[in-house]
Amino acid sequence: MEKQTKEENPQNSQLQDNQQENLQITQPNPEENQPLPHNQPQNPQMIQPQITNPNNTELNSHPQTEVPQNNINAEQHEVNPPIINEPPQEMQNNMIQMDNMNQMNMPEAAMTQQQINEQYMLQYQQQINQMVNNQEMPMNNYMLNYPQIPGQLTPDQLNYQRQMESNENKNIYDYFTNMKLYGIAFQNGNSPRLAISSLEKRIDNKIEILDLIDNDLKKVCEQKIGYPSTKVLWGPNKIKSSLLASSSDFVQIYEYNEEKRALNLQAKLTNLKSKYCGALTSFDWNVVNDSILGTASIDNTCTIWDLNKQSIKTQLIAHDKEVLDIQFGYEENIFISGGADGSVRLFDLRMLDHSTIIYETKGVINKIAWNLQTPNLIAALSLEKNIIYIFDSRMNINVSMDELNLHKEPVTGCVWAPDNPSQLCSVSEDCSVIISNIGNEQNNNVSYTAPCPINNVDWCKSFTEWIGITFNDRVQLLRK
Q1: DSSP state of 270
Q2: End-to-end CA gap in the chain
Q3: I want to staple 283 with a disulfide (CB 3.0 to 4.6 A). Which of 59, 295, 350, 365 is the partner?
Q4: What is the pLDDT of residues 272-284, one digit of tens each?
Q5: 442 and 472 part of one domain
Q6: How confident is the model at residue 384 (pLDDT cuts 50, 70, 90)?
C-alpha cells in the first residue's frame, strides 16, 4: 500500500467564555510505550478541532484527576468513587437479630429465603433513607453496591427471578410502538433492560426504555431526540450503567433516573465550529476507560472525546471516504474503524501519525464487531451483501479467515456472544436470526425466523440467554 502523508497544522488557543476551547495535538514522545506493530502504515491527517462545550454538567459525580490535553501519551489517573463495602452497623445487628429469630422458631422462621431477602432489603432501604434524610451519607453512594450476604439478591434481581420462575416456558417477548425502529442496546445492569430508538425521516424521533414487568415487555420511559439515532449504547460498566448515549448529528448523553423513570440530558458533544462536523454514523464507548468515547462521521473523520471534560482529545481523517463504524478493543488506546472505501483500519492513540489497514475488500464496510474474548478475531459486514467476513487482525489484509454465507439476503447486523468466544449472532433482511459457531466444522447453527426483515440486534451481557432484535415497529426479546 502507498503511504499517504498529510501535514499537521496544530494551533494553540485559550478558553473563551467557558463555552469554546481549542486543543493542541502534539506528536507523542518517542520514549513512551511503542504501539502495536504496523505492517501497512497509513498517514491519517490530524485535524485541529474547534470545540463547543454547551453544557458544564459533569458526567461523573466523583472528582477526576485532570489529564493534560496537550499530550496524547499523558498518563491516565483514576479516582475510585466511594463504595459502601458493608452495611451500616445497625443493619448488621438487624441481620443477626433475624438469624436469631429463625433459630428460636419464631413465626418468622417459617418464611422462605426469598421472603427473608425481601424483608431485609426493605429494612435496608428504610435505614438508607433515614441516613440520607439525616445527611449522614450522599444519596448516590448506596446505589453503587448493595450489601452482599449469602443468598442476597438486589430488588431488580428478585423481580427478574420471580418473572422467570412464573413464566419459564415463554421464550419470546414482543413490544410494539408507532414508529419504525432501528437502534437497540441492553443495559449492563441487574435486569435485561432495553433501550430502543426510532428511524423516521423527520425530526420527531424518540428513544424508549423497556423493562420486563408482569411477564411482559413494557415501556417505562420515552425521550424525544429530533433526528433519527444511528446508534444507542449504555455505559460500559455497572457504575456508569445508568448513562445512555445516542448519536445523530451529535452525541447526546442521558442519565436514566430509575425512581422517576426519566432520561435527563447530561452532555451534548458537538463540534459545530469545525469544518469537520458531519453527521455521525456510529460511536463506541471505551470498555477499559469509560471516560473515552469515539465517533465515526460521514466527513471521513474519527473523533475521540474526553467525557470528563466534555472536550475533544483528538480528531483525524481516518478513511478516504465516509467512516461508517468504530469500535474500541481490548486495550485502552486501540480502536478500529470501517469505511465506505472498503477497508478496516486499526489505530493507536499513542501514535496517530499512521494507521494499519488490517482488512480490505471491494464494496463498503458498514459494520464491524470486535471479539473482545478472542481479541484478534473481527467480523465485518459489507453493505447490501449477504456475507459475513471473519478475519484475524494479524494476517494478510487480503485474506479472510472465513466468509459466512448463512443468509439469503443482505446481513444487517451481527454481535459476538458475551459468554462464548466462538459464537456469533447475525440478522438479515431475509428475516432470520442465526447463531453460528465459528471454527466448528459441524456448523451447529441455531436459527429463528422473524415476521419481517430485521434491522438490528444486540446480545445481553448481564443475562446472556437473551437476544434483542428490531424490525418495523416491533421489538422482540428472544431466549437463546
Answers
A1: B
A2: 43
A3: 295
A4: 767 778 899 999 9
A5: yes
A6: very high
Which of 116, 135, 166 marks a domain boundary?
166
CA dihedral (336, 289, 209, 222) positive or negative: negative
Q: Cα-Cα-Cα-Cα dihedral of 296, 182, 308, 240, to 10°?
A: -140
Question: CA–CA separation, 314 vs 348, rounded Å?
Answer: 12
Distance CA 26, CA 38 (A): 21
Domain limits for position 143: 89-166
Residue with cell 443468598: 151
Is residue 192 included in any domain, yes or no? yes
> Do both 406 and 474 map to the same domain?
yes
pLDDT band at 190 (very low <50, low <70, confident <90, very high): confident
**In a shared domain, residues 415 and 293:** yes
Which residue matches cell numbers 447490501? Answer: 384
**Res 22 pLDDT > 60:** no
Q: Which three cell numbers stand for residue 31?
A: 520514549
CATH code at position 417:
2.130.10.10
* Distance between CA atoms of residues 305 and 335, nearest Å: 13
Are 456 and 468 contacting, i.e. CB atoms less than 8 angstroms apart?
Answer: no
Give buried/exposed letters for 88-115 (b at 16+ CB in 10 A, else e): beebeebbeebeeeeeeeeeeeeeeeee
**Is residue 249 domain-shared with residue 196, that is, in the same domain?**
yes
pLDDT-above-90 percentage for the chain: 51
**264 in the same domain as 144:** no
Same domain, 132 and 263: no
Domain contains 152: yes
Answer whether residue 362 shows pLDDT above 50: yes
Separation of alpha carbons 254 and 244, rounded Å? 5
Q: How far is residue 106 CA from its own chain's centroid? A: 49
Identify whether the C-beta of residue 438 lies closer than 8 Å to the C-beta of residue 396. no
Distances (CA, A) of 251 to 19, 193, 376: 17, 21, 29
Residues 6 or more apart in contact with residue 341 via CB below 8 angstroms? 319, 320, 321
351 and 457 part of one domain: yes
| Cβ-contact 397, 40 below 8 angstroms | yes
pLDDT at 410 over 70: yes
Question: How far apart (Å, rounded) are the C-alpha atoms in residues 178 and 206?
Answer: 11
